Every structure is written in C-alpha cells, then in structure tokens.
Amino acid sequence: MLSANPHNALPPAIFLMGPTASGKTDLAVALTEALPCDIISVDSALVYRGMDIGTAKPDAATLARAPHRLVSFLDPSEPYSAAQFRRDALREIAAITASGRIPLLVGGTMLYFKVLLEGIAELPPADPAIRATLAAQAAAQGWPAMHARLAQVDPAAAARLHPNHSQRILRALEVYEQTGSPLSLLQQQQQPEPLPFRPVQLALLPGDRDALYRRIAERFDRMLAAGFIDEVRALYDRGDLSPAMPAIRAVGYRQAWDYLAGHLDATQLRDTGIAATRQLAKRQLTWLRSWPAVQPLVTGEPFVLADVLSDALKSLAAAGI
User: Fold this and answer.
1) Using CA of residue 210, residue 248, residue 243, residue 165, what is the dihedral sign?
2) Alpha-carbon distance 45 to 107, whole Å?
3) CATH class of the domain at 6-120+191-318
4) Among 87, 151, 170, 214, which is most buried by a count of CB atoms within 10 Å?
5) Could you state, in order of their start, the residue ranges of all structural domains in the chain?
6) Splitting the chain (321 residues) into consecutive groups of 10 residues, what average pLDDT does each group show?
7) pTM score
8) 207 closest CA partner among 304, 283, 293, 104
C-alpha cells in the first residue's frame, strides 16, 4: 500500500542501474514478463545504428521479446547529449504511462539517470569544429595536459574529473570555448527540474568484483569472436567518422579504431579493450556507491536470474508496484 506522501501520487518509473556486464538486460527482460513494463534504454552508445556487437546491444530475438526504446535511432556521425536524452526519455516515459504501462529505464550511463532526476543546464550544442581542434590538441598533448588546461579555466569541473576522462574534459573545454564561462558555473545557475514521475531505483551490484571482471573479459572475447573488428571496420571505412566523435569514443570502439589504424596489435586491442571496460565498470560503481534512494540488488556468482528477479520484485512490491 502506498503511503500518504504526495510524491507517491506521481506515476512510477523504474530505474534499473548497474555496471556493465552485471546482467541488467536479462533482468529487464524478465521484469517485462512479470510486470506490465516497457523498456527505455539509458545508454549513450546503444542509440547508434551499426554499433551492435561492441555495445552488447540486445539481439533481434531479445528486442522482439522485449522491445527497447531509444535504441539504434542515430547515425554514429551524430552527437547526442544528456539534455537530448532527457527530452527523449521524458517523452517515452509519458507515452508508456499514458498507455497504462510502467516505464522501465535500463542502462549504465549514470549521467543520463542523473539529469533525468535533476534536470540539466541549458548548454550550447556540440560544435564539430571546436571539438575537432580540441581532439587534435589532445592527440598531440595527451588528456592529462587537457585536464590541466581545464583546471586553469574551470577548476571546479576539473576537480570532479579524472585526467583520462576524455569525453567530459572535452565537453567542459568545448563549452568554455563557446561561451567564455566555466561549465561548472553554468551548471550552478540551472534551475532544478525534478522528474515528474516517481522513480523507484534498483541497482545490480555484483558481490564479487573479480567475478564481474571475469565476465567483462569473457564478453569482450565473445564480441571479438562475433565479428566486432568487422563491425568497426565498416565504420572506419566510411571516411566520415573520427575518434573525436562520441560514438567512436565508446569503450571498445576507441581501441578497435586504434587497432585498425595500426596503433595496436591484436593482443593490445584485447588487453586495452578489457581494461577500458573494467575502468567503465569502476566508474559506474563509484556513481552507485553515493547514489541516493537506491535499492541494491546484490548478485552472487554465478548470476542466478531467478534469484535476482525475485529480489527485484520484492523491492518493487514494497514500493507499491
């Protein structure tokens, strides 16, 4: 039974978060078969067409069984921002709710979940020319040098970022070049825009991090065996894409691009691809450790879907779903 809290009068939206390779897709599909849920992807790489293997995009059979919204609707040449995601996700949440079903937002792009909950400052759109210039400078000087440059113009933003967090450093420098104002200041000036739905937040948290890392390595090997290099080669050979673009900066794709450019051999591709994916998982877990109002679903090894589904359904029932 729902409490008298007026917040509970809002229609619910289920968030299913967790690190990469933690089993989110399997649990999400199972939830759609147990509850009247429709899935919305919360993943900055799954939005792109032609990027299927390296993103672990659900296959055609899975998508037929449990359709995902906000998947494969952009060309890899097109940038996609957190602000665009928020607008698109709010539209899809409203449509699902209006149909009498429950939105189930699933993914690991934690920034997207954050802006969905809190809103986001109105920032200028990406500028390809500025991005290309900054990317060229980063290639020549290294991302730690670009981070040091950011610290000079926006120390607050730099303090929140690791020196190798290239995408966010690039965006912060780009905004400063465009506006003359620090990104952190523009974000402080934003008006909060609370989510007009009641978020019920679940997080898959592997109890054994070493087991998660093994799954990451095994999955990367399966991607390579499934033709990941050929997938990236099709993007590489187009001639209109570059490592400066968000799609090509996605984990795995950056390393495969470097392999095709002759900067890595096959062993280095595998090692750096797995290492980058592990770093992504660490960042996601760092987000989740400080995430407010989240219900953890601690998973064992091996991952037993029936047990995790049971725990998730209990948590959702306690939240009135």
Assistant:
1) negative
2) 10
3) alpha beta
4) 170
5) 6-120+191-318, 128-188
6) 53 98 98 98 98 97 97 96 94 98 98 92 83 90 93 92 87 91 83 88 96 97 98 97 92 98 98 98 95 95 95 97 96
7) 0.83
8) 304
